[in-house]
Amino acid sequence: MESKSLVSTIVFSTAMTLCAPILANAQKYVADVNNYPDKPIRFIVPWVAGGGADFSARIITAKMSEGFNQQVVIDNRPGANGIIGAELAAKATPNGYTMVLLIAEHFINPSINSRLPYDTVKDFAPISLIGAHSIVLIVNPSLPAKSVQELVALAKSRPGELTFGSWGNGSLGHLSGELFKSMAKIQMVHIPYKGAPQAIVDIHGGRLSLMFTTVPTGLPFISSGKLRGLAVTSAERLPILPDVPTVIESGYPGLEIQHWRGIYVPAGTPKQIISKLNAELVKILRMQDVRDRLTAGGFYPVSSTPQELEAFSKSELERWAKVAHQAGSRTN
What we know:
By secondary structure, the protein is α/β, with parallel strands linked by helices.
């Protein structure tokens, strides 16, 4: 009995010795959660600077920096339809010091790419929606089409000659164009770009015929007269573009599309941090100056609980799977 007791004592003592660093780290981690944030936060935007995603992210992060008294640093990581930036976020330490802006494309990607380096839903913890906006169909003013109907007639008279750009294969701009082709029964050639701003440069230069882009990205060019807006994908006309009809008015009701944005953190981030981030975002999105800036840019500011965003994320995954299948956009 004495020998058995001695062995038990040794085993227990060894176990406590091995666990001591783990317990110490756990206590430090709890302290870090209580003091969060006590250092700068990285905010990954998986899209180019100057686009609609970047526009909304910079408004939000400026206010977060003020509210937390810690710098929230934008880290633009464009490429692969948002996959590059999303992978960085998915593999980051789940301690609240990495956030990522995910948009509709994140939930389109599984339907067009079977080899994603992360799980679209399970590897990310939702914080809050920050808003949504419409898509606008833009063309160069020199293109002989001042309405959707005239554009369709032009495309039918020149099958396969018109080109439409997007911010990447499988992007919402790409699928919008594919749906439009299918519904209007026209032939156009898709040209993917690294980001929407690059495509707009080519439309303005006459090297690209048209594009379905985000309202925040297209608005300045439409307002200045550099590009022509033919239609918006919202249910009703937008106050900031009152002279641009909806796609519904133009005879294509099935093309009603809203582009949305949400903020996420790596899965496993402590619930206390998620709650703190959500509370801060809700507060920011209620600020009148934030709402005014987002609205002026063609954005509809809206917040949510993490649970609401989780449910919405899953519904988007199902929705875009059907659309991608219809558009035949599978890449591998």
